[in-house]
Amino acid sequence: MIVFCLAFGLLAGQMGPKGRLMVDFFVVLNDIIMKLVGVVMWIQQPVSREQTPLTHHICVLRA
User: What does the buried/exposed string (b/e) look like for 14-36 if buried means 16 or more CB atoms within 10 Å of the residue's CB?
Assistant: First the structure.
């Protein structure tokens, strides 16, 4: 998988303007996924430290 991704990136970079379109697509896709991950993390953060034993352990690890 890593070899395929490296080869894909290298070949897309060598294709000039046609390859740039594909690279731009993946850059935008990455930005969208990072925003979604941020929203999910914001939703999942505990409101207080006394919610459940599991969130207590997570809060201790964060501190």
Answer: eeeeebeeeeeeeeeeeeeeeee
